[in-house]
Design brief:
With 99 residues, the chain is α+β, with helices and mostly antiparallel strands. The protein has a single domain (12-98), classed as Hypothetical Cytosolic Protein, Chain: A (2-Layer Sandwich). Helix content is 35%, strand content 22%. The strands form 2 sheets. A 3-stranded antiparallel sheet has the order 4-3-5. A two-stranded antiparallel ribbon has the order 1-2. Helix 1 (57-65) runs antiparallel to helix 3 (79-98). The structure holds zinc ion. Residues 15, 17-18, 20, 53-54, 56, 59 line the site of zinc ion.
Length: 99
């Protein structure tokens, strides 16, 4: 089975929370920085190991409660940092949807 009809040469990424594959431009990148924190990388310019998430509340809520992001980034993330990231993500989604 092939599914090359759509999105020629458009990079696709898998959401670490729901595992859906979407076009990169539809996802939000998160990056583990050198300090071991996890940040939202809206412009895609932060150095570090990255993972991608949908612009869906459910996915951001999921990564706070699960360790899927840790697996994707191959590093420990403090619960507190995870909660901060989840909050920041939900704030970001609010802005995206209101703008
Ligand atoms: Zn998702």
């Amino acid at each position: 089975m092939t599914s090359n009809l759509q999105g020629k040469a458009k990079p696709q990424r898998t959401c670490v929370a729901c595992r859906q594959v979407k076009q990169k431009g539809e996802m939000v990148r998160v990056v583990r920085t050198a300090e071991g924190k996890v940040e939202i990388d809206i412009k895609g310019k932060i150095e570090g190991r990255g993972a991608y998430l949908c612009r869906e509340r459910a996915c951001w809520e999921k990564i706070v409660k699960s360790n899927q992001l840790e697996h994707a980034l191959k590093s420990k993330i403090k619960q507190n940092d995870r909660e901060q990231l989840g909050k920041a993500g939900l704030e970001m989604l609010k802005e995206l949807h209101s703008g």
